[in-house]
Amino acid sequence: MEFFFLFLKTIWFRPYVFAFLAAFLISAVALIGWPRTWRFWLISWITAFSCEYSSTRTGIPFGWYHYNGSTIGQELYISNIPFMDSISFSFLLFASYCLALLLLLPVAPGHQEPGLRPPRLSFALRERTSWQVFILTVLFFAFIDMVIDPVALRGDRWFLGKIYYYPDPGVHYGVPMANYAGWAVVGAISLLIYFALDRRLSQPLPAHLPLTTHRLLLGVGLYYGVLLFNLAVTFWIGETLQGTTGLLMYVPVTALLLLRLLTPATRST
Fold first, then answer.
1. What is the mean predicted confidence (pLDDT) over 108-135?
2. Alpha-carbon gap, residue 264 to 259, rounded angstroms
3. Which residues, 6 or more positions from 220, have their beta carbon under 8 angstroms from its beta carbon?
4. Which of 259, 159, 219 shows the shortest CA–CA distance to 32?
5. Helices 212-236 & 15-32 angle (0-180, nearest 10)
6. What's the number of CA atoms in the CB half-sphere (13 Å) around residue 97?
7. Which phi-psi region, left, alpha or beta, contains residue 115 (left: φ > 0; alpha: ψ -120 to 50)?
């Protein structure tokens, strides 16, 4: 019962994280089905937790940082790691995966979408687990933390709270560059395991009707939802330069995404 009440307190304490988690489950089940969704979540969560557990003790792979335990009793912890922190890696990795897929998947042969309708994309196994998708997903995953981590580090100025610190603050608004390398490591390990598993799973994917593109947009919406939430908080606490930098980082990505969705593509027949 004590665990149950602490879990309820965690939901109350971090409702925005649970909202993002719910969005992840809805979009992931729609795109890849429940058998792959729970495996994706478990792989990425275990990888993230293991890396956080290691880094707070050895500095590998994120560099040295420490949770101060200020929210113990208010939210669920596993060892010294807040549960909601490690679980966030899962939905951020999936959202990054969707963004990479939407930019890289080829148009399905034999389909011509009139006007400015989104292209009908192929979702074949070889294409959704390609090295190009792998690399771009890892980049987007590390990229979004360059917006998230600087504002999270200033959690004492908003409702996150001051839950962690770096003993040696880094050059990127106090965040060491090793932290972003650590995010890339988590994303790479998780995807390597998941892609290998996806190639072996026999369970069929959900029927992608009307379009795979629409299901990918759910995940991309999650990505931009997290991004806009963190940018809004950054500007709200008065970090104008930090917020503007984060905003400008995503201008090229957003422009490429809009071009992909709105520009008619050459389709084979």
1. 80
2. 9
3. 95, 98, 99, 102, 257
4. 219
5. 160
6. 29
7. left
Which pLDDT tens digit goes with each residue over 39-96? 999 999 999 999 999 999 999 999 999 999 999 988 999 999 999 899 999 999 999 9
Largest CA distance in the chain: 61
* Residue 259, CA atoms < 13 Å, CB-side half-sphere: 8
Residue reference for tokens 């294409």: 127
59: left (phi over 0), alpha (psi -120 to 50) or beta: left
Q: Indicate the length of the chain as a whole number.
A: 269
pTM score: 0.94
Whether 181 contacts 10, CB under 8 Å: no
Residue type, 171: V
CA distances from 141 to 94, 99, 133, 203, 252 (A): 9, 10, 12, 27, 16
DSSP 5-37: HHHHHHHHH-HHHHHHHHHHHHHHHHHH-HHHH
The values of phi and psi at residue 202, to 5°, are -95, -15
| CB distance 68 to 163 below 8 Å | yes
Residue 166, helix vs strand vs coil:
coil
Helix axes 34-58, 15-32, angle to 10 degrees: 130
Q: Is 105 left (phi over 0), alpha (psi -120 to 50) or beta?
A: beta
Phi-psi region of 110 (alpha: psi -120 to 50; beta: other; left: phi over 0): left
130: helix, strand or coil? coil
Helices vs strands, H then E, count in the chain: 10, 4
Tokens of 148: 């998230």
Question: What gap in Å lies between CA 143 and CA 145, rounded to an integer?
Answer: 5
Residue with structure tokens 């905003």? Answer: 247
